[in-house]
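Weekly sync, protein design subgroup
Attendees: M.S., D.O., the rotation student, P.L. (late)

Item 1: inverse folding check
M.S. brought a backbone from last month's batch and wanted to see whether the design step gives back something sensible before we order anything. D.O. pointed out we never logged the input encoding, so this time it goes straight into the notes. Structure tokens as presented (290 positions):
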């Protein structure tokens, strides 16, 4: 009973932080009150391994070339494992690089066959979720898994919703495709949510996910501090990797992150979405789905 009360209190507190951050200051991580480094923190509702205070997962979408060319070598130089939700044409275009990434311990996840999003995006008008059925979505989820398994020899265990959108159809005929993801994958990752994931409460098929693209180190550090304060799991998603540009994870931010998390005094567990999700499923007292 005591544990349940703690979980509720923590959840309410984070909702408050999220709303304040959005109202007060635009931009990721802005307006979040961060604790002083290494100051004593309250006991957590969820216990991470090896006395870590929080978990962080880095994920990158669409198998963009700069991930293989810049991002993975940088991560490998620090021994940090990330999750890559791949576009199938891009996977085929640099297959040896993605085979090497897998061999180095990174996770390769399912990101659909056609990357369908709402038809309000012109690029998705011919493959609009509004025009999809659940049967079509189920078939394509399985096709993507089969193709990745054929190319890399591993079957994906986690999925990233293209554009973070989780529906098919329109109006009264609209349906969530979360159950399709839940029945096929250990976890489903979102996009542009407003807060970290609470491991003691979350639905693993709808992981809260925050944007990594464009963040300065100070902005990312504020998100990390918020996550540590509550003992949560920060799931991050980026696209390109480079010095600057649209949808790009800044290399200086990524390097600063790698330097920061290698210090065990900072209390972070950094691992793939699949590895952290498996730990959460096996260790929380909340009656987990799997
Ligand atoms: Zn994508």
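Designed sequence read out in the meeting:
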């Amino acid at each position: 009973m005591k544990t349940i009360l703690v979980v509720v209190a923590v959840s309410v507190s984070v909702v408050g932080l999220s709303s304040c951050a959005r109202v007060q200051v635009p931009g990721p991580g802005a307006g979040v009150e961060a604790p002083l480094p290494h100051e004593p923190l309250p006991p957590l509702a969820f216990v991470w391994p090896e006395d870590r205070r929080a978990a962080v997962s880095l994920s990158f979408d669409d198998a963009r070339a700069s991930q293989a060319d810049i991002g993975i070598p940088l991560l490998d130089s620090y021994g940090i494992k990330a999750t890559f939700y791949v576009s199938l044409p891009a996977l085929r275009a640099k297959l040896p690089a993605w085979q090497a990434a897998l061999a180095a311990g990174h996770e390769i996840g399912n990101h659909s066959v056609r990357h369908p999003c709402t038809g309000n995006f012109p690029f998705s008008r011919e493959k609009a979720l509004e025009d999809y059925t659940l049967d079509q979505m189920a078939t394509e989820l399985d096709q993507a898994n089969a193709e990745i398994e054929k190319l890399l020899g591993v079957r994906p265990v986690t999925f990233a919703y293209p554009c973070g959108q989780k529906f098919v159809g329109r109006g009264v005929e609209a349906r969530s495709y979360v159950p399709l993801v839940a029945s096929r994958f250990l976890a489903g990752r979102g996009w542009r949510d407003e807060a970290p994931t609470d491991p003691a409460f979350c639905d693993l098929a709808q992981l809260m996910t925050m944007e990594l693209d464009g963040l300065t180190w100070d902005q990312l550090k504020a998100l990390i501090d918020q996550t540590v304060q509550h003992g949560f799991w920060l799931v991050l998603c980026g696209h390109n990797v480079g010095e600057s540009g649209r949808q790009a994870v800044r290399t200086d931010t990524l390097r600063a992150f790698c330097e920061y998390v290698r210090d065990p005094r900072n209390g972070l567990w950094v691992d793939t979405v699949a590895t952290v999700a498996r730990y959460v499923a096996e260790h929380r007292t909340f009656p987990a789905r799997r």
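Discussion: The first helix runs from residue 2 to 24. The pocket of zinc ion is lined by residues 61-62, 111, 115, 162 (CB under 6 Å).
Action: P.L. to compare against the previous round before Friday.
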